Amino acid sequence: MNLSPVVIAIPMYFILMAIEMIALRFQRHPGYRLNDAITNINCGVLSQVTGVFIKVLSIGIYTLIFQHLALFAIPNNIWTFCLLFFLYDFCYYWAHRMSHEVNLFWGGHVVHHSSEEYNLSVALRQSSTQTIWTFFFYFPLALLGFDPIMLVLASGINLLYQFWIHTEAIGRMGFLEKFMNTPSHHRVHHGRNPKYIDKNHGGTFIIFDKWFGTFQQEEEKPTYGITTPVKSWNPLWVNLAHYANMKEEWKMIPNWSDRMKYLFYKPGWLPESLGGYRAPKEVEADYQKFDTVVPNSLNWYVFAQYIFILLLTGFFLFEVDSFNWLPKVLVSALIMWTTISFSGVFENKNWYLPQEVIRILAFAAVVFFLVQSLLPLPILVGVSGAYCLASFYWLWKNQQLKSQIHSISV
Q1: What residues of the chain score a pLDDT lower than 50?
Q2: What's the half-sphere exposure (Cβ side, CA atoms, 13 Å) at 330?
């Protein structure tokens, strides 16, 4: 069983999001949009699923350094863990800061900033590639002799702490804000206003920002998102959009020295021959968030299907250590396929209906494969058949409704 604190806390994430929705409702704050929230969670799902493979590399290298190059034999106890947790957040600060200040690294972090909302679901909007650009920032902890298991625990708790600060339901927190990261401080970090960009990089503690000159107090309400909105609910494209843009700009740069600068200078940098650095601009007065509209019945369809895929994802993440490579690949592919499929529904893509039919059959087949030893065959066949028939009927009714709306509009 996977005992990562992040995976264990998955049920609590959704309980806290429900509480936040209630609190925001009492505050008469819109708070959530279904398409945005599901895209946020989809990005988190992709991150966790791909992390099953990527973290083998990052933790593996850390472990090798710890086993062969560690300078000290640090014992595992509560005091050394507290020290590790503080040092981990120090390393996190620099990994996070460089993820904002290095264009290539920004490609791995921009996913987290690309939502134009700010609520607890945004905390789950994590990148599938960020670990590639940041895992080596923690190698000094291996050299010092901190156990890999303790590092994973510190990393998980640090990430759990950052979940609750992604909210507008909590205002200022007084004395706590002098040394801890809080919702107010982190709202600044997610703002696309020029005065807020590249500020407040701390994970658990805010003191590193105050020490190293990157602290900014929350003043006017931030406008959330990135300066070039991604304008898509597709979590795969959300992960790849910055790299795709980099590819196009890379081809414009004539010489290799400037191409290398483009990779490692700040996002927005171009050589002087192409106009130079493009500084962030003030938010436009007529700025509007990206949105798409589909019939409510389709929203409810996605919501219902999403419960099933979240149950499968939770089961997969909890039991991943007991799977061999085939179910790992099959379930990972199905989960990623589903997140893309739902974006097609939200964006009214022409391809969503036929491939959603195929996805439903694939989902039933994979679940059948995974749980065939847990349930009697007649029950399993009956449940799978009922799921498929109900899903197909719902899709058919949705298509009828869309056709009626289209004929009325014409």
Answers
A1: 406, 409-410
A2: 15
The CB-side HSE value for 410 (13 A sphere, CA atoms) comes to: 6
**What is the 8-class DSSP label of residue 198?**
T
Q: What is the pLDDT of residue 326?
A: 82
Structure tokens at 284: 């436009």
Maximum pairwise Cα distance, the chain: 75
**Residue 291 CA: distances (Å) to CA of 33, 104, 351:** 9, 28, 19
- DSSP H helices, 225-324, are 235-252, 256-264, 296-319
Which structure tokens are listed for 297? 């019945």
Please check whether residue 203 is in contact with residue 87, taking contact to mean a CB–CB distance below 8 angstroms: no
3-state secondary structure of 87: helix
3-state SS, residue 28:
coil
**Do 267 and 118 have their domain in common?**
no
Which domain covers residue 396, as residue numbers? Answer: 296-409
Same domain, 203 and 344: no
Structure token digits, residue 317: 């993440």
Per-residue confidence (pLDDT) for residue 402, from 0 to 100: 64
How many angstroms separate the CA atoms of 365 and 84, rounded? 45
Query: Residue 336's closest CA among 234, 263, 404, 242?
Result: 234
Residue 94: name the closest of 52, 140, 61, 127 by CA.
140
Q: Are residues 270 and 377 in the same domain?
A: no
Rounded Cα–Cα distance for residues 397 and 395 (Å): 5
Whether the CA torsion 322, 46, 93, 120 is positive or negative: it is negative
Place of tokens 């909210």: 167
My answer on whether 13 and 156 are in the same domain is: yes
